[in-house]
Design a protein that fits this description.
The chain starts with 8 loop residues before the first helix and ends in a 13-residue tail after the last helix. It has helices spanning 9-37, 44-61, 64-68, 73-93, 96-103, 106-115, 119-124, 127-143, 146-150, 154-175, 187-210, 218-250. The chain is mainly alpha-helical. It is globular. Helices cover 75% and strands 0% of the residues. α1 packs antiparallel against α2 and α1 crosses α5.
């Protein structure tokens, strides 16, 4: 298959894989610099979480499930769970923004944090906007002809994959505060947005069970939607547990400096 710009599909996916590999390399380099600069070493659990998250991304774009996803809705939905639910949680826990701010000099780190206070970043990390980009994007994907079109165009297919991950990551960090954000909304507001987003995701999975996407057989739609529903439940329970734990801890008196300190 060739895209509209006549680049063969393997080259496009190899470029995306190269981006993931570069991200791992930069994360490891930043970890080494951080450990040399600070008395407290960077968490090995965060490093492992980042690596596993990238492995999940790899699994969604290469390998048997990625190949079968073009014709098998169940395989496609497996990729959706890896790319749009599990990987974002793992990478959010890895706190990549906080790590890179730690290794920058103070002047540069302040410039970056000022840039992160700009209105586009504040808008994209707003819980409601991030939820619309994530869950709303899935509704558009599966209830229009977009799903069928992405199977015919490699550029569109890659764009959808990138959008699913980025939108899900933005939603995750807007709800659970593992990483540095210039503004964090109240737990009450975030809990409302979280519940609405989870409800919309559950309703979509039930809708797909009865109304298969264009080009998907009813049997495949039933299997895929069940995976979306029950697999999504497992990821959502994890997200809820993390969120509730953070909310509970926030009610305790603080005796130390902010957990978002990076200099």
């Amino acid at each position: 298959m060739h895209s509209n710009n006549h680049l063969p599909e393997p080259i496009l996916w190899l470029q995306l894989i190269a981006v993931c590999m570069i991200a791992i390399g930069l994360y490891l380099i930043a970890m080494v610099i951080s450990n040399r600069r600070f008395r407290k070493s960077w968490s090995i659990w965060k490093t492992l979480s980042f690596g596993i998250g990238v492995v999940f991304i790899f699994s969604a774009i290469i390998g048997p499930y990625a190949i079968n996803a073009h014709s098998d809705f169940y395989a496609h939905m497996t990729n959706h769970l890896l790319l749009g639910m599990l990987a974002p949680i793992l990478i959010a826990f890895a706190s990549p923004v906080t790590l890179f701010l730690r290794v920058l000099n103070v002047k540069t780190a302040r410039r970056v944090t000022e840039w992160m206070k700009s209105w586009p970043i504040l808008l994209l990390t707003h819980p409601l906007v991030a939820a619309l980009l994530s869950v709303g994007g899935l509704w558009i994907l599966y209830t229009t002809s977009l799903y069928a079109l992405m199977q015919q165009n490699v550029l569109l297919h890659m764009f959808v994959h990138v959008h699913v991950f980025i939108a899900s990551y933005l939603f995750t960090i807007s709800i659970i505060s593992f990483d540095y954000l210039p503004h964090q909304w109240s737990f009450r507001f975030r809990s409302i947005v979280l519940l609405l987003a989870l409800a919309a995701h559950g309703i979509l999975s039930k809708y797909l069970y009865a109304h298969p996407p264009e080009g998907v057989s009813r049997l495949d739609a039933e299997k895929g939607s069940m995976l979306m529903y029950y697999g999504g439940d497992a990821s959502e329970i994890l997200l809820i547990l993390i969120f509730c734990t953070q909310w509970y801890k926030s009610t305790k008196p603080r005796v130390s400096t902010s957990t978002h300190s990076f200099v």
